[in-house]
Amino acid sequence: MALYALLGFAAGLPFYMFSTVLTLRLQAHGVALAVIGFFAWVQLLPTLKFVWAPLLDRYSIPGFGRFWGKRRGWIMLAQLGIFSAMIAMALTAGDASLAVTALFAVLLAFWTTTLEVAADAWRIELYPTQDEQGPIVAANLWGYRTAMVAAGSGALIVADGAGWVAAYLLIAVAAFLPFPLLVAMRPDGEGGGGGRWVALATGLVASLVILGAAALLTAAVGWAALSAAAGLGIGAGSNVTPYVLVLCMVPFLAMGAALPWIRNAPPTSRLRTSTVLGPYVDFFWRYGGAALLLMAFVSLYRMGDVLALNLSKPMIKGLGYSLTQIGRADSLVALVASMAGVGLGGWLATRWRMTWLLALGAVVAAAGNFGFVWLAHQRVDEALLYVSTAADQFGNGFAGAVFVVYLSLLVNPRYPGAQYAFLTGFAFLLPRLLAGAGGTMVGAIGYDGFFLLSGFVSLAAIPLLPLLARVVARPEDHA
């Protein structure tokens, strides 16, 4: 449990360093707000983890895998990836080249997500029953929540006093803490032959090759993407919102086009029996046309919070608050408010109808976003910043807890893992895609307009609730 708390801590630290903390760093170096918004697209990687997750099931890391086992081997590689990417971000903290900054931010997001995938797989293998999972999941989430405080507040306070290089180096060291513990652990039953130090040396050499290959591949893809954007005339001054909105419609059009075939597929159809596609096809087979309504609601419900995440801190900094003041607000105030929201949402989920609970969640989440508009028109006062932060985090925690319960109820118990991963991935895919255009939105409508819009987007999910209350899943047509 202590190790999983530490793994949660190690996974939670980097997320803030390539999201919220990075936006403040870029703002400090005079980067255009539209470009800061583009960096929100780095957060799309965690929603796409299904693309490379099968590799972690099939392959082992040379050296690490032979001595410590497949799962721990991947965790150790991911730890090295996080550490090296964070060091690189520290050494390029001046942001002289935004392309280089983006490269290392993407690598940090990739290895952070890989750590989470490997740790989750190992956890499920070690503790397969429900009563075993509860404590280990709690330990992991507590570590993750603690990391949010450490990175969201500690890194900013250090940066305010000692600079961005020191902040990233400190978080890099903290995120690397599980590695020596993993090295010291006993060999895995899969094969502990050979010496520990030989296995470690072999694993380090293999990791160096893998990390280098991943960096080169990421750089090549990034160069191609930037070249394509330049060819289309997209730059810091471009309004990309219309393009993103069109792109957001593509998944709905594709799902709508496929529904007739899915809805009429018999139990023996390869679409429904496929190991890879079957769980996802099953969701649309059970809900039919209502699946599009469900996906629209899922995309809207947390969109306001996702839109506000990246640009709330630059707005607050622009009001005249220091990094230290922002850091203090993001420490105990944010943690307590978030925990209170999660606890109340979970408690009410056992007592209220889900329709009413979802509506209340949308209202408190919207209120948190409206709080930023209120803060912008007040004098600079740290106590008022605490009020705004608490309202935002309480709403975020409450709506998040309610949303998790609702998504869990939509899942077919035959495919709990795959369908829940699909729903959560889709829930944040489109909002994070649109969040990348947040900077250009602020340029067009200002911060007040942006945070009012993000709040009203959360409320826009409420009119769908009466329709959702009537949605019933199609009964199974086979054993």
From TrEMBL:
Membrane-spanning ranges: 33-52, 73-93, 99-122, 142-159, 165-185, 197-223, 243-262, 283-301, 331-349, 356-377, 383-409, 421-445, 451-473
Main location: membrane
Gene3D superfamilies: MFS general substrate transporter like domains (1.20.1250.20)
GO cellular component entries: membrane
Domain of life: Bacteria
Cell compartment(s), UniProt: Membrane
Bilayer topology: Multi-pass membrane protein
Keywords recorded for this protein, A-Z: Membrane, Transmembrane, Transmembrane helix, Transport
PANTHER family given in the database record: MAJOR FACILITATOR SUPERFAMILY DOMAIN-CONTAINING PROTEIN 3 (PTHR12778:SF10), SOLUTE CARRIER FAMILY 33 ACETYL-COA TRANSPORTER -RELATED (PTHR12778)
Protein name in UniProt: Permease
